[in-house]
Design brief:
The radius of gyration is 17 Å and the shape is elongated. By secondary structure, it is mainly α. It has two domains: 49 residues; 42 residues, no CATH class. Helix 3 crosses helix 4. The chain contains four helices and no strands. This is Isochorismate pyruvate-lyase. One of its GO terms (biological process) is chorismate metabolic process. One of its GO terms (molecular function) is lyase activity.
Amino acid sequence: MIRPLEYCVNKQHIHDSVDTIDNRIVELLALRKTYIGKGKSLNDEQNGEQNIIRNLDSNYVLLAKRFHLPIVFIQSIFQEIENYINQDFIAKGYEQQ
């Protein structure tokens, strides 16, 4: 459970909230990967829409600014995510051959 910050009165409350946040981050990364996979499978059918999926770089800048985080930090996180997902799809492609 993510306890509202104003109700965190000890380190265990903070620890539990951070653990929940970390779990949600991983859960959302797995969900994101699933959506990207679906998008890639639709790529053949709807080739023009691939630009919509891939035109996310400018979105990272907006996200970083909205949440007051360094742009380079956010871009590097998403670059690592993309590297992982692309590596995974490349590996699966080789397995299917």
